[in-house]
Amino acid sequence: MLTGELTTHREEQWVVAAGARDSYQLPIALHEADLLRAFLTDFYAPLDCRAAGFVCSLLPRTLADKFKRRYSSELPSRLVTSRPGVFLKTRNHAQWMEYNQMLGERAGEVAANYGCGIVSYAHVATGAFEKAAGLPKVLVQMQPHPASVRNTLREDELLPDLQEGETTNELRWPQSVFDTLCHEPQLADRSIVASNYTRRTLMAGGIDDESITVVPYGVDLDFFTPGSPNMGAFRLLFVGQPVRQKGLHYLLEAWNRLKLPNAELHVVARSGRSNAVLSRYSDKFIFHEDLDWTSLREEYRRADLVCLPSLSEGFGLVTLESLACGTPVLASDAAGSSELLEQGQDGFVIPAADLPSLVVALESAYSDRPRLREMRAAARRKAERFPWSRFREGIRVAVGRAVLTATS
Length: 408
Hints:
With 408 residues, the protein is α/β, with parallel strands linked by helices. It folds into two domains: 14-43 and 83-218 and 388-407, Glycogen Phosphorylase B (Rossmann fold, 3-Layer(aba) Sandwich), CATH 3.40.50.2000; 234-384, Rossmann fold (3-Layer(aba) Sandwich), CATH 3.40.50.2000. It has helices spanning 25-32, 50-58, 61-68, 84-89, 96-114, 125-131, 146-155, 175-183, 196-204, 248-258, 276-280, 293-302, 317-324, 355-367, 369-374, 376-384, 388-407; strands at 14-17, 36-41, 80-82, 117-121, 137-140, 190-193, 212-214, 234-239, 263-269, 286-289, 305-308, 329-332, 347-350. It starts with 13 loop residues before the first strand and ends with a helix. The model is unreliable at 1-11 (pLDDT under 50).
Protein backbone atom coordinates (compact mmCIF):
# COMPACT_ATOMS: atom_id res chain seq x y z
CA MET A 1 0.00 0.00 0.00
CA LEU A 2 1.09 3.59 -0.53
CA THR A 3 1.86 5.41 2.70
CA GLY A 4 3.25 8.77 3.67
CA GLU A 5 2.31 10.28 0.30
CA LEU A 6 0.65 13.58 -0.54
CA THR A 7 -3.16 13.44 -0.78
CA THR A 8 -5.60 15.91 -2.29
CA HIS A 9 -7.18 18.72 -0.31
CA ARG A 10 -10.77 17.75 0.42
CA GLU A 11 -12.08 20.96 -1.12
CA GLU A 12 -10.49 20.06 -4.47
CA GLN A 13 -13.01 18.77 -7.02
CA TRP A 14 -12.37 16.77 -10.18
CA VAL A 15 -14.11 15.95 -13.43
CA VAL A 16 -13.32 12.52 -14.87
CA ALA A 17 -13.56 11.59 -18.56
CA ALA A 18 -13.54 7.91 -19.45
CA GLY A 19 -15.55 4.97 -20.73
CA ALA A 20 -16.27 1.78 -18.77
CA ARG A 21 -12.62 0.90 -18.21
CA ASP A 22 -11.46 -0.72 -15.01
CA SER A 23 -14.98 -1.32 -13.68
CA TYR A 24 -15.25 2.44 -13.00
CA GLN A 25 -12.57 2.29 -10.30
CA LEU A 26 -11.15 5.67 -11.35
CA PRO A 27 -14.25 7.79 -10.63
CA ILE A 28 -15.09 5.58 -7.64
CA ALA A 29 -11.67 6.41 -6.15
CA LEU A 30 -12.44 10.13 -6.19
CA HIS A 31 -16.06 9.68 -5.11
CA GLU A 32 -14.95 7.75 -2.01
CA ALA A 33 -12.95 10.81 -0.94
CA ASP A 34 -15.75 13.29 -1.81
CA LEU A 35 -13.57 14.66 -4.62
CA LEU A 36 -15.68 13.77 -7.65
CA ARG A 37 -17.65 16.63 -9.17
CA ALA A 38 -18.76 14.79 -12.32
CA PHE A 39 -17.97 11.74 -14.39
CA LEU A 40 -18.47 12.04 -18.16
CA THR A 41 -18.63 8.86 -20.19
CA ASP A 42 -20.13 7.47 -23.37
CA PHE A 43 -22.79 5.33 -21.69
CA TYR A 44 -23.64 4.54 -18.06
CA ALA A 45 -26.67 2.44 -17.07
CA PRO A 46 -28.48 4.21 -14.17
CA LEU A 47 -29.51 0.98 -12.47
CA ASP A 48 -29.82 2.75 -9.13
CA CYS A 49 -32.98 4.33 -10.57
CA ARG A 50 -36.07 2.17 -10.11
CA ALA A 51 -37.32 2.54 -13.69
CA ALA A 52 -33.97 1.60 -15.23
CA GLY A 53 -33.63 -1.36 -12.90
CA PHE A 54 -37.10 -2.58 -13.88
CA VAL A 55 -36.33 -2.27 -17.61
CA CYS A 56 -33.06 -4.17 -17.12
CA SER A 57 -34.96 -6.99 -15.38
CA LEU A 58 -37.05 -7.47 -18.53
CA LEU A 59 -34.08 -7.80 -20.89
CA PRO A 60 -32.66 -11.12 -22.08
CA ARG A 61 -29.89 -12.31 -19.76
CA THR A 62 -27.04 -11.65 -22.17
CA LEU A 63 -28.19 -8.09 -22.84
CA ALA A 64 -28.91 -7.48 -19.15
CA ASP A 65 -25.35 -8.60 -18.34
CA LYS A 66 -23.98 -6.02 -20.78
CA PHE A 67 -26.03 -3.29 -19.07
CA LYS A 68 -24.81 -4.39 -15.65
CA ARG A 69 -21.22 -4.04 -16.83
CA ARG A 70 -22.04 -0.39 -17.49
CA TYR A 71 -22.98 0.29 -13.87
CA SER A 72 -21.44 0.16 -10.40
CA SER A 73 -23.33 0.41 -7.13
CA GLU A 74 -20.36 2.40 -5.82
CA LEU A 75 -20.87 5.19 -8.36
CA PRO A 76 -24.25 7.00 -8.09
CA SER A 77 -25.75 7.82 -11.47
CA ARG A 78 -26.45 11.40 -10.27
CA LEU A 79 -22.71 12.05 -10.67
CA VAL A 80 -22.57 10.66 -14.19
CA THR A 81 -23.32 12.30 -17.53
CA SER A 82 -23.64 9.89 -20.45
CA ARG A 83 -23.09 10.78 -24.08
CA PRO A 84 -24.75 7.79 -25.80
CA GLY A 85 -24.19 9.31 -29.24
CA VAL A 86 -20.46 8.92 -28.64
CA PHE A 87 -21.00 5.31 -27.52
CA LEU A 88 -22.78 4.46 -30.76
CA LYS A 89 -20.44 6.34 -33.07
CA THR A 90 -17.21 5.00 -31.60
CA ARG A 91 -18.32 1.52 -32.73
CA ASN A 92 -17.22 2.82 -36.16
CA HIS A 93 -13.41 2.52 -36.18
CA ALA A 94 -13.13 5.21 -38.85
CA GLN A 95 -14.69 7.79 -36.53
CA TRP A 96 -13.61 6.68 -33.08
CA MET A 97 -10.99 9.41 -32.59
CA GLU A 98 -13.34 12.17 -33.73
CA TYR A 99 -15.97 11.22 -31.19
CA ASN A 100 -13.47 10.58 -28.40
CA GLN A 101 -12.34 14.15 -29.05
CA MET A 102 -15.94 15.34 -28.69
CA LEU A 103 -16.37 13.52 -25.38
CA GLY A 104 -13.10 14.95 -24.10
CA GLU A 105 -14.02 18.47 -25.13
CA ARG A 106 -17.33 18.23 -23.29
CA ALA A 107 -15.55 17.03 -20.15
CA GLY A 108 -13.07 19.88 -20.43
CA GLU A 109 -15.91 22.39 -20.74
CA VAL A 110 -17.54 21.03 -17.59
CA ALA A 111 -14.24 21.22 -15.72
CA ALA A 112 -13.71 24.79 -16.89
CA ASN A 113 -17.24 25.78 -15.81
CA TYR A 114 -16.72 24.37 -12.33
CA GLY A 115 -13.06 25.39 -12.06
CA CYS A 116 -12.21 21.74 -11.37
CA GLY A 117 -9.16 19.71 -12.13
CA ILE A 118 -9.65 17.03 -14.77
CA VAL A 119 -8.63 13.37 -14.92
CA SER A 120 -8.86 11.68 -18.31
CA TYR A 121 -7.95 8.41 -19.91
CA ALA A 122 -5.71 8.49 -22.97
CA HIS A 123 -7.41 8.95 -26.37
CA VAL A 124 -10.02 11.22 -24.74
CA ALA A 125 -7.61 13.54 -22.98
CA THR A 126 -6.51 15.83 -25.81
CA GLY A 127 -9.91 17.48 -26.19
CA ALA A 128 -10.42 17.53 -22.42
CA PHE A 129 -7.09 19.17 -21.61
CA GLU A 130 -7.36 21.77 -24.36
CA LYS A 131 -10.67 22.97 -22.89
CA ALA A 132 -9.35 22.96 -19.32
CA ALA A 133 -6.34 25.24 -19.75
CA GLY A 134 -4.85 26.44 -16.46
CA LEU A 135 -6.51 23.68 -14.41
CA PRO A 136 -4.76 20.61 -12.94
CA LYS A 137 -4.66 17.84 -15.56
CA VAL A 138 -4.03 14.13 -14.95
CA LEU A 139 -3.63 11.63 -17.78
CA VAL A 140 -4.37 7.96 -17.16
CA GLN A 141 -2.13 6.28 -19.76
CA MET A 142 -2.86 2.60 -19.33
CA GLN A 143 -1.53 1.74 -22.81
CA PRO A 144 2.15 2.10 -23.74
CA HIS A 145 3.16 5.23 -25.62
CA PRO A 146 1.85 4.99 -29.22
CA ALA A 147 5.32 5.41 -30.73
CA SER A 148 6.57 2.44 -28.72
CA VAL A 149 3.66 0.26 -29.84
CA ARG A 150 4.10 1.24 -33.49
CA ASN A 151 7.79 0.39 -33.39
CA THR A 152 7.05 -2.97 -31.80
CA LEU A 153 4.47 -3.86 -34.43
CA ARG A 154 6.77 -2.80 -37.25
CA GLU A 155 9.56 -5.01 -35.92
CA ASP A 156 7.40 -8.13 -35.56
CA GLU A 157 8.36 -10.57 -38.31
CA LEU A 158 6.26 -13.62 -37.39
CA LEU A 159 3.55 -14.42 -39.97
CA PRO A 160 3.63 -11.00 -41.66
CA ASP A 161 0.95 -12.08 -44.14
CA LEU A 162 -1.67 -12.21 -41.39
CA GLN A 163 -3.57 -8.92 -41.41
CA GLU A 164 -6.12 -7.69 -38.88
CA GLY A 165 -8.81 -6.49 -41.25
CA GLU A 166 -10.59 -3.37 -39.98
CA THR A 167 -9.10 -3.54 -36.50
CA THR A 168 -7.36 -0.30 -35.67
CA ASN A 169 -3.87 -0.21 -34.23
CA GLU A 170 -0.98 2.19 -34.23
CA LEU A 171 0.18 1.02 -37.67
CA ARG A 172 -3.20 1.75 -39.22
CA TRP A 173 -4.05 5.04 -37.53
CA PRO A 174 -4.12 8.10 -39.78
CA GLN A 175 -0.93 10.08 -39.23
CA SER A 176 -2.90 12.98 -37.71
CA VAL A 177 -4.38 10.64 -35.07
CA PHE A 178 -1.00 9.09 -34.33
CA ASP A 179 0.63 12.52 -33.91
CA THR A 180 -2.19 13.71 -31.64
CA LEU A 181 -1.98 10.71 -29.32
CA CYS A 182 1.82 10.83 -29.21
CA HIS A 183 1.59 14.45 -28.08
CA GLU A 184 -1.22 13.84 -25.58
CA PRO A 185 1.02 12.99 -22.57
CA GLN A 186 2.80 16.33 -23.03
CA LEU A 187 -0.45 18.13 -22.14
CA ALA A 188 -0.74 16.60 -18.66
CA ASP A 189 0.67 17.82 -15.37
CA ARG A 190 0.92 14.21 -14.22
CA SER A 191 0.54 10.80 -15.83
CA ILE A 192 -0.69 7.63 -14.13
CA VAL A 193 0.42 4.31 -15.60
CA ALA A 194 -0.21 0.71 -14.53
CA SER A 195 3.34 -0.61 -14.94
CA ASN A 196 6.99 0.31 -15.14
CA TYR A 197 6.90 -1.00 -18.71
CA THR A 198 4.44 1.75 -19.70
CA ARG A 199 6.39 4.27 -17.64
CA ARG A 200 9.54 3.52 -19.66
CA THR A 201 7.69 4.01 -22.95
CA LEU A 202 6.47 7.43 -21.80
CA MET A 203 9.97 8.41 -20.77
CA ALA A 204 11.22 7.36 -24.21
CA GLY A 205 8.50 9.62 -25.61
CA GLY A 206 9.91 12.63 -23.76
CA ILE A 207 7.86 12.62 -20.54
CA ASP A 208 9.68 13.56 -17.34
CA ASP A 209 10.04 10.55 -15.01
CA GLU A 210 9.12 12.72 -12.01
CA SER A 211 5.69 13.41 -13.46
CA ILE A 212 4.77 9.70 -13.81
CA THR A 213 3.17 7.62 -11.06
CA VAL A 214 2.90 3.82 -11.35
CA VAL A 215 -0.36 2.44 -9.97
CA PRO A 216 -0.87 -1.28 -10.70
CA TYR A 217 -4.37 -2.50 -11.42
CA GLY A 218 -6.49 -4.38 -8.91
CA VAL A 219 -8.94 -7.27 -9.07
CA ASP A 220 -12.30 -8.20 -7.53
CA LEU A 221 -11.14 -10.78 -5.02
CA ASP A 222 -14.68 -11.65 -3.94
CA PHE A 223 -15.72 -12.60 -7.47
CA PHE A 224 -12.54 -14.09 -8.93
CA THR A 225 -11.92 -16.98 -6.54
CA PRO A 226 -10.27 -20.41 -6.91
CA GLY A 227 -12.18 -23.51 -7.95
CA SER A 228 -11.27 -27.18 -8.07
CA PRO A 229 -8.11 -28.02 -10.05
CA ASN A 230 -8.61 -29.47 -13.51
CA MET A 231 -7.99 -33.22 -13.52
CA GLY A 232 -8.80 -33.83 -17.20
CA ALA A 233 -6.83 -32.88 -20.29
CA PHE A 234 -4.17 -30.20 -19.91
CA ARG A 235 -5.87 -26.82 -20.48
CA LEU A 236 -4.04 -23.72 -21.67
CA LEU A 237 -6.06 -20.48 -21.76
CA PHE A 238 -5.71 -17.21 -23.69
CA VAL A 239 -8.03 -14.28 -22.88
CA GLY A 240 -7.90 -11.12 -24.98
CA GLN A 241 -8.43 -9.61 -28.38
CA PRO A 242 -7.01 -11.70 -31.27
CA VAL A 243 -4.75 -8.94 -32.55
CA ARG A 244 -1.04 -8.85 -33.32
CA GLN A 245 -0.23 -6.66 -30.32
CA LYS A 246 -1.53 -9.40 -27.98
CA GLY A 247 0.88 -11.94 -29.44
CA LEU A 248 -1.79 -14.57 -30.06
CA HIS A 249 -0.13 -15.56 -33.34
CA TYR A 250 2.95 -16.58 -31.34
CA LEU A 251 0.86 -18.74 -29.02
CA LEU A 252 -1.04 -20.41 -31.86
CA GLU A 253 2.12 -21.11 -33.82
CA ALA A 254 3.86 -22.51 -30.72
CA TRP A 255 0.85 -24.72 -29.94
CA ASN A 256 0.74 -25.93 -33.54
CA ARG A 257 4.39 -26.94 -33.41
CA LEU A 258 4.10 -28.74 -30.07
CA LYS A 259 1.15 -31.00 -30.99
CA LEU A 260 0.81 -32.11 -27.36
CA PRO A 261 -1.39 -35.17 -26.70
CA ASN A 262 -4.31 -34.88 -24.27
CA ALA A 263 -4.04 -31.09 -24.26
CA GLU A 264 -6.42 -28.26 -25.17
CA LEU A 265 -5.90 -24.61 -25.98
CA HIS A 266 -8.92 -22.43 -25.16
CA VAL A 267 -9.21 -18.92 -26.62
CA VAL A 268 -11.63 -16.37 -25.15
CA ALA A 269 -12.21 -13.27 -27.30
CA ARG A 270 -14.91 -10.91 -28.48
CA SER A 271 -14.07 -11.27 -32.16
CA GLY A 272 -15.38 -14.18 -34.21
CA ARG A 273 -13.50 -16.70 -36.30
CA SER A 274 -13.45 -14.32 -39.29
CA ASN A 275 -10.31 -12.91 -37.68
CA ALA A 276 -7.29 -13.79 -39.87
CA VAL A 277 -5.18 -15.17 -37.01
CA LEU A 278 -7.97 -17.37 -35.68
CA SER A 279 -8.91 -18.58 -39.16
CA ARG A 280 -5.34 -19.72 -39.90
CA TYR A 281 -5.35 -22.03 -36.86
CA SER A 282 -9.07 -22.75 -36.58
CA ASP A 283 -8.63 -26.47 -35.85
CA LYS A 284 -5.97 -25.96 -33.16
CA PHE A 285 -8.05 -24.45 -30.35
CA ILE A 286 -11.46 -24.28 -28.71
CA PHE A 287 -13.06 -20.86 -29.15
CA HIS A 288 -15.27 -19.00 -26.67
CA GLU A 289 -16.79 -15.76 -27.93
CA ASP A 290 -17.78 -12.84 -25.66
CA LEU A 291 -18.26 -14.80 -22.41
CA ASP A 292 -20.13 -13.30 -19.49
CA TRP A 293 -18.18 -12.75 -16.27
CA THR A 294 -19.30 -15.97 -14.61
CA SER A 295 -18.37 -18.11 -17.61
CA LEU A 296 -15.01 -16.34 -17.89
CA ARG A 297 -14.30 -17.08 -14.22
CA GLU A 298 -15.00 -20.76 -14.87
CA GLU A 299 -12.50 -20.78 -17.72
CA TYR A 300 -9.83 -19.31 -15.45
CA ARG A 301 -10.57 -21.93 -12.80
CA ARG A 302 -10.44 -24.84 -15.22
CA ALA A 303 -7.17 -23.78 -16.83
CA ASP A 304 -3.83 -25.27 -15.79
CA LEU A 305 -2.07 -22.18 -17.11
CA VAL A 306 -3.04 -18.81 -18.62
CA CYS A 307 -0.79 -17.41 -21.34
CA LEU A 308 -0.32 -13.69 -22.05
CA PRO A 309 2.28 -13.55 -24.87
CA SER A 310 1.87 -9.82 -25.55
CA LEU A 311 4.21 -7.87 -27.80
CA SER A 312 3.28 -4.61 -26.01
CA GLU A 313 0.81 -4.45 -23.13
CA GLY A 314 0.38 -1.64 -20.61
CA PHE A 315 -0.67 -4.12 -17.95
CA GLY A 316 -2.92 -7.09 -18.72
CA LEU A 317 -5.73 -7.40 -16.19
CA VAL A 318 -6.06 -11.03 -17.29
CA THR A 319 -3.03 -11.77 -15.12
CA LEU A 320 -4.63 -10.66 -11.86
CA GLU A 321 -7.97 -12.27 -12.70
CA SER A 322 -6.22 -15.56 -13.37
CA LEU A 323 -4.07 -15.39 -10.25
CA ALA A 324 -7.13 -14.60 -8.14
CA CYS A 325 -8.69 -17.83 -9.46
CA GLY A 326 -5.55 -19.70 -8.40
CA THR A 327 -4.21 -20.24 -11.92
CA PRO A 328 -0.55 -19.42 -12.65
CA VAL A 329 0.30 -17.20 -15.62
CA LEU A 330 2.91 -17.38 -18.37
CA ALA A 331 3.50 -13.82 -19.59
CA SER A 332 5.94 -12.06 -21.85
CA ASP A 333 8.19 -9.37 -20.40
CA ALA A 334 6.38 -6.83 -22.62
CA ALA A 335 3.20 -7.31 -20.59
CA GLY A 336 3.23 -4.85 -17.70
CA SER A 337 1.60 -7.33 -15.35
CA SER A 338 4.59 -9.66 -15.73
CA GLU A 339 6.28 -7.37 -13.20
CA LEU A 340 4.03 -8.89 -10.52
CA LEU A 341 5.03 -12.49 -11.22
CA GLU A 342 7.69 -14.43 -9.32
CA GLN A 343 9.40 -16.85 -11.68
CA GLY A 344 8.42 -20.41 -10.87
CA GLN A 345 6.40 -19.37 -7.82
CA ASP A 346 3.12 -18.00 -9.18
CA GLY A 347 3.97 -17.73 -12.87
CA PHE A 348 6.61 -17.59 -15.57
CA VAL A 349 8.08 -14.71 -17.61
CA ILE A 350 9.65 -15.14 -21.05
CA PRO A 351 11.02 -12.66 -23.61
CA ALA A 352 8.41 -11.11 -25.88
CA ALA A 353 8.28 -12.15 -29.55
CA ASP A 354 10.50 -15.15 -28.83
CA LEU A 355 8.85 -18.22 -30.33
CA PRO A 356 11.49 -20.77 -29.23
CA SER A 357 11.27 -19.57 -25.61
CA LEU A 358 7.48 -19.81 -25.70
CA VAL A 359 7.62 -23.36 -27.08
CA VAL A 360 10.05 -24.44 -24.36
CA ALA A 361 8.02 -22.80 -21.58
CA LEU A 362 4.75 -24.39 -22.73
CA GLU A 363 6.32 -27.84 -23.07
CA SER A 364 7.85 -27.53 -19.61
CA ALA A 365 4.53 -26.53 -18.04
CA TYR A 366 2.72 -29.37 -19.81
CA SER A 367 5.31 -31.88 -18.60
CA ASP A 368 5.02 -30.86 -14.95
CA ARG A 369 1.33 -30.39 -14.10
CA PRO A 370 1.89 -31.27 -10.40
CA ARG A 371 4.12 -28.20 -10.15
CA LEU A 372 1.40 -26.01 -11.67
CA ARG A 373 -1.08 -27.29 -9.09
CA GLU A 374 1.38 -26.53 -6.30
CA MET A 375 1.61 -22.95 -7.60
CA ARG A 376 -2.12 -22.31 -7.28
CA ALA A 377 -2.01 -21.23 -3.62
CA ALA A 378 0.86 -18.82 -4.29
CA ALA A 379 -1.04 -17.43 -7.30
CA ARG A 380 -4.04 -16.60 -5.11
CA ARG A 381 -1.82 -15.05 -2.43
CA LYS A 382 -0.21 -12.79 -5.02
CA ALA A 383 -3.61 -11.57 -6.24
CA GLU A 384 -4.66 -10.81 -2.66
CA ARG A 385 -1.96 -8.15 -2.55
CA PHE A 386 -3.77 -6.23 -5.29
CA PRO A 387 -7.39 -5.52 -4.32
CA TRP A 388 -9.12 -2.69 -6.16
CA SER A 389 -8.90 -0.66 -2.93
CA ARG A 390 -5.12 -0.49 -3.38
CA PHE A 391 -5.56 0.81 -6.93
CA ARG A 392 -8.03 3.47 -5.75
CA GLU A 393 -5.66 4.63 -3.03
CA GLY A 394 -2.89 4.97 -5.59
CA ILE A 395 -5.16 7.01 -7.85
CA ARG A 396 -5.98 9.45 -5.06
CA VAL A 397 -2.30 9.91 -4.20
CA ALA A 398 -1.34 10.55 -7.82
CA VAL A 399 -4.18 13.00 -8.33
CA GLY A 400 -3.11 14.83 -5.20
CA ARG A 401 0.38 15.28 -6.59
CA ALA A 402 -1.09 16.89 -9.69
CA VAL A 403 -2.52 19.75 -7.63
CA LEU A 404 0.94 20.82 -6.47
CA THR A 405 2.46 20.25 -9.92
CA ALA A 406 -0.12 22.50 -11.57
CA THR A 407 0.16 25.26 -8.96
CA SER A 408 3.92 25.25 -8.38
